[in-house]
Target: HI0933 family protein
Amino acid sequence: MLSLRIVVIGGGAAGFFGAIACAKANPDAQVTLLEASRQPLAKVLISGGGRCNVTHACFDAEELVQNYPRGAKALRGALTRFGPQDTVAWFAASGVYLKTEADGRMFPVTNTSETIVECLIKSVATSGVKLRVGTHVTSVKRSAADEGFDILLKSGETIKCDRLLLAIGSSIVGYKIVRELGHQIEPPVPSLFTFNIADQKLRELAGVSVNPVQLRLSAGGKSQLQQTGSLLITHWGLSGPAVLKLSAWGARVLHESRYQAKLLINWLPLLHQEQVREKVLAVKDEWGKKAIALHRGVDLPHRLWQYIIARAGITTEDRWAEISSKTLNQLVQELTQGQYLINGKGAFKEEFVTCGGVNLKEVNFKTMESRLVPGLYFAGEILDIDGVTGGFNFQSAWTTGYLAGIAMANSQTA
Model:
């Protein structure tokens, strides 16, 4: 029997992991990994601020999938077959140890993404995978002679294979190849981004952070989405984990509304609105002769407090005893349901995540094989899967890449 010819297109996290898993599981297979750029794993290298957030210390699949705005249902079973604990063990077996930070994110103990990149490149070499960089794929066709594939390169060369793994990321070329092979692509739109807020007074508070806040998003007349977490005020508006998570869950509705939306901020989510009112009234009773700007009575940064009272129509000279019930109600409203207008999106430099990709109903998540094209497999960001920030997107790449690699290794030629 001839040995399996397997090609993986895409030299990112998912592609490397799939190629390595395949070659290790079937040493007789001829595994070739194609990468268009001269620098494979470029995204891994710059991820997590150069530290690489490899995965997240969440070892229950049911809980883990709650961090995927798209793909949770499809990933649930897959993550029980290869989850974060398996990722940790895989890297440890390769001599790379991970550490867990307070928020659950896991990084290499070396604190540099170069450790992960070097590990993957070394594993590719030792497992017998043939890595070809600077190799541009222009199209893929089903082979007329058999059930394999003909991969046409920009150079004019054609590579033939029996099994093909597309781990090509959210690229125009990748989507073109997928469509040519008969698959649907869910339209790609950005995920994980910051909010532009056209409020100069707010922007002057750049650097101020609050944890926690509760955010509610209303866009395009759609039902509100909600997230709780820390928030950072920036020179362009709002950032921080709560904003990034909300942008991920609201990726499509925000895209449809052209990033024009209403944002409600509860600056004191640990208290009910009536509890906030009681706190404010208590301060008014106790510090009636004091300036409101200097005696806040709630746990918020001083500069932010001054901004919020100004939104409620209170000046820096106003004293607690002087404000009316109407003004006090307005202050409570600003503290618990302040309205802000989003008028565009910013970038999130440490992540490059797109929502959209191959329709998940067309993929068997036990093997990552296409339900439409036998011998074709998918892994990574080419799929309509995306997670919030915190190592979840890398875990999806490791999981789908590994399952595809093992399935290809164990498949039989006709």
